[in-house]
Design brief:
Blueprint lengths: L4 E5 L23 H10 L4 E6 L10 E3 L6 H12 L4 E6 L7 H13 L5 E5 L11 E3 L3 H9 L6 H5 L4 E5 L11 H12 L1
Parallel strand pairs: 1-2, 1-4, 2-3, 5-7
Antiparallel strand pairs: 4-6, 5-6
Length: about 190
């Protein structure tokens, strides 16, 4: 267990998927994407929250409900960082089923090598990055809050340009993102092999 907290970003509206991603079964009888993400983070984090959309009807103590609509994953990251039980927060989007718990160990080691970093995130070295499977430091909170209040589109990469950050090269399968039914079908076919 690492001295870090975690947040699962599960507050999206899944418009392109056409159904709630959280409840998709990885395989028949297997865990949902949300349960898989919970298992991943619970295996390494001392505390894990789930970021939920604005207006989420029945939150539990582990849920962080968006305070304002339409601010996307940055709001979920900000709410987790504001909890500040630990300096570092593992961020894992629910629709990234290829991310192993060992990735966060790797990211943590990179942060230990340079504790001035505020974001450590995976990428494939060819321009495809995934900060929604990253390690974020509590120091990033003020920049995120300013960015969210600026009226700019709430893009994660927009705020990252303002932060000391580092990309860690990982296998491309860690970065598989499920946004559409076609993405889901490809993932299931690859998982069945």
């Amino acid at each position: 267990m690492l001295p870090i907290q975690g947040v699962i970003l599960a507050g999206g509206q899944s418009r392109r998927m056409g159904q709630c991603k959280n409840d998709l079964l990885i395989d028949p009888g297997g865990p949902t994407l949300l349960k898989r993400a919970r298992r991943t983070l619970h295996s390494i984090c001392v505390t894990v929250w789930v970021s939920r959309p604005f207006g989420y009807p029945s939150p539990t103590p582990e849920d962080l409900v968006d305070e304002r609509p339409q601010l996307g994953p940055l709001m979920g990251i900000a709410m987790a960082l504001a909890q500040h039980r630990q300096d570092l927060t593992c961020v894992l989007a629910v629709d990234l089923p290829g991310v192993p718990a060992s990735l966060f160990d790797t990211l943590y080691q990179h942060w230990m090598d340079d504790p001035t970093l505020e974001v450590v995130y995976p990428g494939d070295g060819d321009g495809h990055i995934q900060p929604l499977a990253g390690l974020w430091h509590a120091k990033a909170l003020s920049a995120i809050q300013s960015f969210l209040g600026s009226g700019q589109p709430p893009r994660v990469q927009g705020v990252m340009r303002q932060l000391p950050s580092k990309q860690v090269i990982v296998p491309q399968e860690y970065l598989v993102n499920l946004n559409t039914p076609e993405d889901w079908a490809r993932f299931q076919a690859a998982s069945a092999r």
